[in-house]
Write a structure and sequence with these properties.
N-utilizing Substance Protein B Homolog, Chain A, globular, Alpha-Beta Plaits, Rossmann fold
Length: 427
Protein backbone atom coordinates (compact mmCIF):
# COMPACT_ATOMS: atom_id res chain seq x y z
CA UNK A 1 0.00 0.00 0.00
CA UNK A 2 2.99 2.34 -0.16
CA UNK A 3 1.47 3.69 -3.39
CA UNK A 4 -1.41 5.09 -1.29
CA UNK A 5 1.07 6.84 1.00
CA UNK A 6 2.89 8.16 -2.04
CA UNK A 7 -0.29 9.57 -3.60
CA UNK A 8 -1.41 11.11 -0.30
CA UNK A 9 2.01 12.72 0.24
CA UNK A 10 1.90 14.21 -3.25
CA UNK A 11 -1.64 15.49 -2.63
CA UNK A 12 -0.59 17.15 0.64
CA UNK A 13 2.32 18.85 -1.11
CA UNK A 14 0.08 20.23 -3.83
CA UNK A 15 -2.45 21.55 -1.30
CA UNK A 16 0.29 23.49 0.47
CA UNK A 17 1.27 24.85 -2.94
CA UNK A 18 -2.22 26.37 -3.07
CA UNK A 19 -4.35 23.79 -4.87
CA UNK A 20 -7.79 22.40 -3.94
CA UNK A 21 -7.61 18.87 -2.48
CA UNK A 22 -10.56 17.52 -4.47
CA UNK A 23 -9.08 18.73 -7.75
CA UNK A 24 -5.65 17.39 -6.81
CA UNK A 25 -6.94 13.92 -5.94
CA UNK A 26 -8.98 13.70 -9.12
CA UNK A 27 -5.85 14.54 -11.14
CA UNK A 28 -3.69 12.05 -9.23
CA UNK A 29 -6.22 9.23 -9.57
CA UNK A 30 -6.27 9.86 -13.32
CA UNK A 31 -2.48 9.59 -13.41
CA UNK A 32 -2.40 6.47 -11.18
CA UNK A 33 -5.25 4.81 -13.06
CA UNK A 34 -3.93 1.28 -12.44
CA UNK A 35 -4.40 1.37 -8.65
CA UNK A 36 -7.16 -0.68 -7.02
CA UNK A 37 -10.34 0.86 -5.56
CA UNK A 38 -9.01 0.01 -2.09
CA UNK A 39 -5.70 1.81 -2.72
CA UNK A 40 -7.63 4.80 -4.03
CA UNK A 41 -9.84 4.88 -0.91
CA UNK A 42 -6.81 4.59 1.39
CA UNK A 43 -5.02 7.43 -0.43
CA UNK A 44 -8.08 9.64 -0.04
CA UNK A 45 -8.47 8.81 3.66
CA UNK A 46 -4.78 9.51 4.32
CA UNK A 47 -4.95 12.85 2.50
CA UNK A 48 -8.01 14.02 4.43
CA UNK A 49 -6.75 12.73 7.76
CA UNK A 50 -3.30 14.30 7.43
CA UNK A 51 -4.79 17.70 6.59
CA UNK A 52 -7.42 17.39 9.32
CA UNK A 53 -4.75 16.97 12.00
CA UNK A 54 -1.88 18.72 10.26
CA UNK A 55 -1.14 21.05 13.20
CA UNK A 56 -0.56 18.13 15.56
CA UNK A 57 1.40 16.07 13.05
CA UNK A 58 3.69 18.90 11.99
CA UNK A 59 4.45 19.75 15.63
CA UNK A 60 5.34 16.11 16.28
CA UNK A 61 7.57 15.93 13.21
CA UNK A 62 9.37 19.16 14.14
CA UNK A 63 10.50 17.54 17.38
CA UNK A 64 11.91 14.55 15.49
CA UNK A 65 13.96 16.47 12.92
CA UNK A 66 17.32 17.90 13.95
CA UNK A 67 16.93 20.60 11.29
CA UNK A 68 14.23 21.60 8.78
CA UNK A 69 13.94 19.12 5.92
CA UNK A 70 14.75 20.68 2.54
CA UNK A 71 12.89 17.97 0.60
CA UNK A 72 9.17 18.79 0.42
CA UNK A 73 8.20 15.32 -0.87
CA UNK A 74 9.89 13.52 2.01
CA UNK A 75 8.41 16.03 4.46
CA UNK A 76 4.91 15.23 3.20
CA UNK A 77 5.58 11.48 3.24
CA UNK A 78 6.63 11.72 6.90
CA UNK A 79 3.52 13.75 7.73
CA UNK A 80 1.29 11.07 6.20
CA UNK A 81 3.13 8.25 7.98
CA UNK A 82 2.98 10.00 11.36
CA UNK A 83 -0.74 10.57 10.81
CA UNK A 84 -1.10 6.81 10.31
CA UNK A 85 0.93 5.97 13.40
CA UNK A 86 -0.94 8.46 15.57
CA UNK A 87 -4.53 8.15 14.29
CA UNK A 88 -4.90 5.18 11.93
CA UNK A 89 -5.57 1.53 12.75
CA UNK A 90 -2.84 0.13 10.50
CA UNK A 91 -0.07 -1.90 12.19
CA UNK A 92 2.90 0.35 13.01
CA UNK A 93 5.52 -1.95 11.47
CA UNK A 94 3.51 -2.01 8.22
CA UNK A 95 3.26 1.79 8.14
CA UNK A 96 7.02 2.18 8.64
CA UNK A 97 7.82 -0.47 6.04
CA UNK A 98 5.52 1.13 3.47
CA UNK A 99 6.93 4.60 4.10
CA UNK A 100 10.50 3.35 3.63
CA UNK A 101 9.47 1.73 0.33
CA UNK A 102 7.82 4.98 -0.76
CA UNK A 103 11.01 6.88 0.19
CA UNK A 104 13.00 4.62 -2.14
CA UNK A 105 11.48 6.63 -5.01
CA UNK A 106 13.68 9.55 -3.92
CA UNK A 107 17.01 10.07 -5.70
CA UNK A 108 18.61 10.93 -2.38
CA UNK A 109 20.51 7.96 -0.95
CA UNK A 110 19.83 8.96 2.64
CA UNK A 111 16.03 9.20 2.22
CA UNK A 112 15.17 5.63 3.27
CA UNK A 113 17.37 5.81 6.35
CA UNK A 114 15.95 9.15 7.41
CA UNK A 115 12.34 8.00 7.06
CA UNK A 116 13.04 4.77 8.91
CA UNK A 117 14.86 6.55 11.75
CA UNK A 118 12.31 9.33 12.20
CA UNK A 119 9.33 6.97 12.31
CA UNK A 120 10.98 4.49 14.69
CA UNK A 121 11.97 7.36 16.98
CA UNK A 122 8.37 8.54 16.92
CA UNK A 123 7.16 5.12 18.05
CA UNK A 124 9.72 5.02 20.87
CA UNK A 125 9.09 8.59 22.08
CA UNK A 126 5.38 8.97 21.22
CA UNK A 127 4.12 9.63 24.76
CA UNK A 128 6.83 12.19 25.52
CA UNK A 129 6.43 13.93 22.16
CA UNK A 130 2.68 14.32 22.69
CA UNK A 131 3.19 15.64 26.22
CA UNK A 132 5.46 18.35 24.83
CA UNK A 133 2.55 19.74 22.79
CA UNK A 134 0.56 20.77 25.85
CA UNK A 135 -0.27 24.47 25.66
CA UNK A 136 0.48 24.64 21.92
CA UNK A 137 -2.87 25.70 20.40
CA UNK A 138 -1.75 25.16 16.80
CA UNK A 139 -0.83 21.57 17.68
CA UNK A 140 -3.88 21.01 19.89
CA UNK A 141 -6.56 22.26 17.49
CA UNK A 142 -4.87 22.00 14.05
CA UNK A 143 -5.97 25.43 12.79
CA UNK A 144 -3.95 28.49 11.74
CA UNK A 145 -3.26 30.88 14.63
CA UNK A 146 -5.35 33.69 13.09
CA UNK A 147 -8.37 31.38 12.82
CA UNK A 148 -8.11 30.35 16.49
CA UNK A 149 -7.69 33.96 17.61
CA UNK A 150 -10.71 35.11 15.63
CA UNK A 151 -13.01 32.43 17.04
CA UNK A 152 -11.79 33.12 20.57
CA UNK A 153 -12.86 36.75 20.12
CA UNK A 154 -16.15 36.09 18.32
CA UNK A 155 -17.23 33.03 20.34
CA UNK A 156 -15.60 33.42 23.76
CA UNK A 157 -17.81 30.78 25.38
CA UNK A 158 -17.54 27.95 22.86
CA UNK A 159 -14.67 28.59 20.43
CA UNK A 160 -13.08 25.29 21.41
CA UNK A 161 -16.24 23.33 20.59
CA UNK A 162 -16.41 24.97 17.15
CA UNK A 163 -12.79 24.07 16.41
CA UNK A 164 -13.23 20.51 17.62
CA UNK A 165 -16.43 20.02 15.58
CA UNK A 166 -14.50 21.05 12.48
CA UNK A 167 -12.05 18.18 13.05
CA UNK A 168 -14.70 15.47 13.27
CA UNK A 169 -15.69 13.15 10.45
CA UNK A 170 -18.92 14.56 8.97
CA UNK A 171 -22.11 12.50 9.10
CA UNK A 172 -23.74 11.35 5.85
CA UNK A 173 -27.14 13.02 5.89
CA UNK A 174 -29.74 12.59 3.17
CA UNK A 175 -32.71 14.69 2.13
CA UNK A 176 -35.65 12.54 1.10
CA UNK A 177 -37.51 13.66 -2.02
CA UNK A 178 -41.03 13.91 -0.63
CA UNK A 179 -42.47 13.98 -4.15
CA UNK A 180 -41.41 10.36 -4.57
CA UNK A 181 -41.36 8.80 -1.09
CA UNK A 182 -41.97 9.77 2.53
CA UNK A 183 -39.08 10.01 4.99
CA UNK A 184 -40.58 7.21 7.09
CA UNK A 185 -40.88 4.88 4.10
CA UNK A 186 -37.36 5.74 2.97
CA UNK A 187 -35.92 4.92 6.41
CA UNK A 188 -37.78 1.61 6.34
CA UNK A 189 -36.36 0.93 2.88
CA UNK A 190 -32.82 1.71 4.02
CA UNK A 191 -33.06 -0.46 7.10
CA UNK A 192 -34.60 -3.33 5.12
CA UNK A 193 -31.62 -3.29 2.77
CA UNK A 194 -29.08 -3.26 5.61
CA UNK A 195 -28.31 0.47 5.79
CA UNK A 196 -28.79 1.49 9.43
CA UNK A 197 -30.28 4.98 9.56
CA UNK A 198 -32.37 7.32 11.64
CA UNK A 199 -34.69 10.26 10.86
CA UNK A 200 -33.59 13.69 12.08
CA UNK A 201 -36.57 15.88 11.30
CA UNK A 202 -38.74 16.81 8.31
CA UNK A 203 -37.15 15.02 5.31
CA UNK A 204 -33.68 14.50 6.79
CA UNK A 205 -32.17 11.07 7.41
CA UNK A 206 -28.67 10.21 8.66
CA UNK A 207 -26.86 7.01 7.79
CA UNK A 208 -25.07 5.28 10.66
CA UNK A 209 -22.07 4.66 8.36
CA UNK A 210 -21.24 6.70 5.25
CA UNK A 211 -21.29 4.79 1.97
CA UNK A 212 -20.58 5.72 -1.68
CA UNK A 213 -23.58 7.71 -2.84
CA UNK A 214 -24.43 5.35 -5.70
CA UNK A 215 -24.91 2.56 -3.15
CA UNK A 216 -27.69 4.44 -1.37
CA UNK A 217 -30.98 2.70 -2.25
CA UNK A 218 -33.13 4.93 -4.43
CA UNK A 219 -30.48 7.60 -4.97
CA UNK A 220 -30.10 7.01 -8.71
CA UNK A 221 -33.90 7.07 -9.01
CA UNK A 222 -34.07 10.50 -7.37
CA UNK A 223 -35.61 9.39 -4.08
CA UNK A 224 -32.93 11.14 -2.02
CA UNK A 225 -30.00 13.57 -2.18
CA UNK A 226 -26.96 14.07 0.02
CA UNK A 227 -27.43 17.29 2.00
CA UNK A 228 -26.26 18.31 5.46
CA UNK A 229 -28.96 18.82 8.08
CA UNK A 230 -28.10 22.49 8.58
CA UNK A 231 -28.31 23.10 4.81
CA UNK A 232 -31.83 21.65 4.77
CA UNK A 233 -33.04 24.67 6.75
CA UNK A 234 -32.95 26.71 3.53
CA UNK A 235 -36.06 25.41 1.82
CA UNK A 236 -38.21 25.88 4.92
CA UNK A 237 -36.79 29.27 5.88
CA UNK A 238 -37.70 30.64 2.43
CA UNK A 239 -41.41 30.46 3.36
CA UNK A 240 -42.33 28.94 0.00
CA UNK A 241 -45.86 28.80 -1.41
CA UNK A 242 -47.20 27.23 -4.60
CA UNK A 243 -47.28 29.55 -7.57
CA UNK A 244 -44.44 31.80 -6.45
CA UNK A 245 -41.63 32.94 -8.75
CA UNK A 246 -38.38 31.97 -7.04
CA UNK A 247 -34.71 32.73 -7.74
CA UNK A 248 -31.91 30.47 -6.57
CA UNK A 249 -28.80 32.64 -6.95
CA UNK A 250 -25.32 31.06 -6.78
CA UNK A 251 -27.20 27.78 -7.17
CA UNK A 252 -24.49 25.22 -8.01
CA UNK A 253 -24.19 22.33 -7.41
CA UNK A 254 -27.95 22.36 -6.96
CA UNK A 255 -28.66 20.85 -3.53
CA UNK A 256 -30.91 23.69 -2.41
CA UNK A 257 -32.32 24.02 -5.95
CA UNK A 258 -33.67 20.51 -5.71
CA UNK A 259 -35.06 21.06 -2.22
CA UNK A 260 -37.03 24.16 -3.31
CA UNK A 261 -38.65 22.18 -6.13
CA UNK A 262 -39.44 19.26 -3.82
CA UNK A 263 -41.20 21.50 -1.28
CA UNK A 264 -43.45 23.65 -3.50
CA UNK A 265 -44.81 24.04 -7.03
CA UNK A 266 -42.94 27.20 -7.98
CA UNK A 267 -41.52 28.84 -11.09
CA UNK A 268 -37.82 28.49 -10.34
CA UNK A 269 -34.93 30.30 -11.99
CA UNK A 270 -31.45 29.10 -10.91
CA UNK A 271 -28.33 31.15 -11.67
CA UNK A 272 -24.62 30.45 -11.34
CA UNK A 273 -21.57 32.01 -13.00
CA UNK A 274 -19.84 28.69 -13.76
CA UNK A 275 -21.12 26.79 -16.85
CA UNK A 276 -19.61 23.51 -15.63
CA UNK A 277 -21.34 23.81 -12.26
CA UNK A 278 -24.60 24.79 -13.94
CA UNK A 279 -24.39 21.53 -15.90
CA UNK A 280 -23.97 19.67 -12.61
CA UNK A 281 -27.03 21.45 -11.22
CA UNK A 282 -29.02 20.40 -14.29
CA UNK A 283 -27.89 16.81 -13.79
CA UNK A 284 -29.04 16.89 -10.17
CA UNK A 285 -32.53 18.19 -10.89
CA UNK A 286 -32.89 15.77 -13.81
CA UNK A 287 -32.12 12.90 -11.43
CA UNK A 288 -34.84 14.20 -9.09
CA UNK A 289 -37.25 14.40 -12.08
CA UNK A 290 -37.81 18.13 -11.50
CA UNK A 291 -37.69 21.21 -13.74
CA UNK A 292 -36.21 24.71 -13.48
CA UNK A 293 -34.82 27.42 -15.76
CA UNK A 294 -31.04 27.43 -15.42
CA UNK A 295 -28.96 30.47 -16.42
CA UNK A 296 -25.25 31.21 -16.50
CA UNK A 297 -24.87 34.60 -14.85
CA UNK A 298 -23.25 36.66 -12.10
CA UNK A 299 -25.50 37.19 -9.07
CA UNK A 300 -23.68 40.47 -8.47
CA UNK A 301 -24.74 41.74 -11.92
CA UNK A 302 -28.43 40.84 -12.12
CA UNK A 303 -29.07 43.39 -14.88
CA UNK A 304 -27.11 41.13 -17.27
CA UNK A 305 -29.60 38.22 -17.06
CA UNK A 306 -32.82 39.38 -15.32
CA UNK A 307 -35.92 39.41 -17.54
CA UNK A 308 -37.58 42.27 -15.61
CA UNK A 309 -40.16 40.10 -13.82
CA UNK A 310 -39.74 40.38 -10.00
CA UNK A 311 -39.21 37.35 -7.78
CA UNK A 312 -41.39 36.54 -4.75
CA UNK A 313 -38.57 34.64 -3.04
CA UNK A 314 -34.79 34.73 -3.50
CA UNK A 315 -32.23 32.32 -2.08
CA UNK A 316 -28.86 34.10 -1.88
CA UNK A 317 -26.39 31.33 -1.02
CA UNK A 318 -23.44 33.70 -1.34
CA UNK A 319 -19.72 32.98 -1.83
CA UNK A 320 -17.94 32.76 1.53
CA UNK A 321 -14.87 31.42 3.33
CA UNK A 322 -16.66 28.07 3.98
CA UNK A 323 -15.28 28.19 7.53
CA UNK A 324 -18.35 26.31 8.79
CA UNK A 325 -17.78 23.22 6.63
CA UNK A 326 -14.07 22.54 7.15
CA UNK A 327 -14.66 18.97 8.29
CA UNK A 328 -15.89 18.24 4.74
CA UNK A 329 -13.25 20.39 3.05
CA UNK A 330 -10.19 19.96 5.27
CA UNK A 331 -7.89 21.85 2.91
CA UNK A 332 -9.80 25.10 3.53
CA UNK A 333 -8.09 25.56 6.91
CA UNK A 334 -4.70 25.71 5.21
CA UNK A 335 -5.66 27.43 1.95
CA UNK A 336 -7.55 30.34 3.52
CA UNK A 337 -5.81 33.52 4.64
CA UNK A 338 -7.30 36.07 7.02
CA UNK A 339 -7.30 38.61 4.17
CA UNK A 340 -9.71 36.32 2.26
CA UNK A 341 -12.49 37.34 4.64
CA UNK A 342 -12.37 40.91 3.35
CA UNK A 343 -12.40 39.65 -0.22
CA UNK A 344 -15.51 37.58 0.38
CA UNK A 345 -17.33 40.32 2.28
CA UNK A 346 -16.77 42.63 -0.69
CA UNK A 347 -18.33 40.03 -3.00
CA UNK A 348 -21.27 39.57 -0.65
CA UNK A 349 -21.78 43.34 -0.46
CA UNK A 350 -22.16 43.38 -4.26
CA UNK A 351 -24.48 40.37 -4.49
CA UNK A 352 -27.01 41.50 -1.88
CA UNK A 353 -27.98 44.88 -3.46
CA UNK A 354 -27.96 43.33 -6.93
CA UNK A 355 -30.46 40.65 -5.93
CA UNK A 356 -32.51 43.11 -3.87
CA UNK A 357 -33.31 44.98 -7.09
CA UNK A 358 -35.08 41.94 -8.57
CA UNK A 359 -37.14 41.12 -5.44
CA UNK A 360 -40.84 41.99 -5.52
CA UNK A 361 -42.33 44.33 -2.89
CA UNK A 362 -43.40 42.21 0.04
CA UNK A 363 -41.05 39.47 -1.17
CA UNK A 364 -38.42 37.70 0.95
CA UNK A 365 -34.72 37.11 0.41
CA UNK A 366 -32.89 34.42 2.37
CA UNK A 367 -29.19 35.20 2.85
CA UNK A 368 -27.07 32.09 3.50
CA UNK A 369 -23.39 31.39 4.15
CA UNK A 370 -21.55 28.26 5.25
CA UNK A 371 -19.32 30.41 7.47
CA UNK A 372 -18.90 30.98 11.20
CA UNK A 373 -17.06 34.28 10.80
CA UNK A 374 -19.32 37.16 11.89
CA UNK A 375 -18.00 39.58 9.25
CA UNK A 376 -19.69 37.46 6.58
CA UNK A 377 -22.88 36.93 8.51
CA UNK A 378 -24.90 39.24 10.77
CA UNK A 379 -22.44 42.11 10.32
CA UNK A 380 -22.98 41.90 6.57
CA UNK A 381 -26.75 42.00 7.09
CA UNK A 382 -26.53 44.93 9.51
CA UNK A 383 -24.48 46.88 6.99
CA UNK A 384 -27.02 46.18 4.25
CA UNK A 385 -29.96 47.25 6.41
CA UNK A 386 -28.30 50.61 7.13
CA UNK A 387 -28.28 51.48 3.42
CA UNK A 388 -31.65 49.95 2.40
CA UNK A 389 -34.57 51.54 4.21
CA UNK A 390 -37.04 49.26 2.39
CA UNK A 391 -35.48 46.15 3.98
CA UNK A 392 -36.29 44.57 7.32
CA UNK A 393 -34.94 41.41 8.93
CA UNK A 394 -37.77 39.04 9.91
CA UNK A 395 -37.85 35.90 12.09
CA UNK A 396 -36.87 32.55 10.60
CA UNK A 397 -39.03 29.44 10.54
CA UNK A 398 -37.64 26.66 12.73
CA UNK A 399 -39.09 23.47 11.24
CA UNK A 400 -36.20 21.11 11.87
CA UNK A 401 -35.88 19.27 15.17
CA UNK A 402 -32.87 20.13 17.31
CA UNK A 403 -31.90 23.30 15.47
CA UNK A 404 -32.17 26.79 16.95
CA UNK A 405 -32.18 29.74 14.56
CA UNK A 406 -32.75 32.56 17.03
CA UNK A 407 -29.66 34.46 15.91
CA UNK A 408 -29.39 32.81 12.51
CA UNK A 409 -26.02 31.18 13.27
CA UNK A 410 -25.92 27.40 13.37
CA UNK A 411 -22.61 26.47 14.95
CA UNK A 412 -21.03 23.23 13.70
CA UNK A 413 -21.75 20.16 15.79
CA UNK A 414 -21.60 16.38 15.51
CA UNK A 415 -25.03 16.48 13.85
CA UNK A 416 -24.57 19.28 11.30
CA UNK A 417 -22.29 21.87 9.67
CA UNK A 418 -21.98 25.55 10.57
CA UNK A 419 -24.28 27.78 8.49
CA UNK A 420 -25.75 31.26 8.84
CA UNK A 421 -29.26 32.35 7.79
CA UNK A 422 -30.91 35.77 7.64
CA UNK A 423 -34.36 36.40 6.17
CA UNK A 424 -35.01 39.88 4.74
CA UNK A 425 -38.37 41.21 3.56
CA UNK A 426 -38.93 44.12 1.19
CA UNK A 427 -41.38 46.62 2.66
Amino acid sequence: MHISQQIAAEAIGQVFAGRNLGVVLESLFTRYSNISPQQRAVAQDLSYGTLRFYGTIEALLDQLLQKPLDDAKLQCLLLVAIYQLQYDKAASHTVVDQAVKAASQSKKTWAKGLVNGVLRNFLRQQTELLANLEGNEFATYSYPAWWITKLKYQYPENWQAILEAGNQHPPMTLRVNQRQISAADFVAKLNAEGFASKPLGANAVTLEKPVPVDRVPGFVLGEASVQDYAAQVAGYALDLKDGQRVLDACCAPGGKTGQILELADVELVAVDNDPTRIARTQSNIDRLKLKATLLVGDAGKSSDWWDGKPFDRILADVPCTASGIVRRHVDIKWLRREADILSFTKQQALVLPSLWQVLAKGGKLLYVTCSVFQEENQRQIDSFLKTHSDAQQVPLNEPLAGLSLKNGQLQPSAQHDGLFYALLQKR
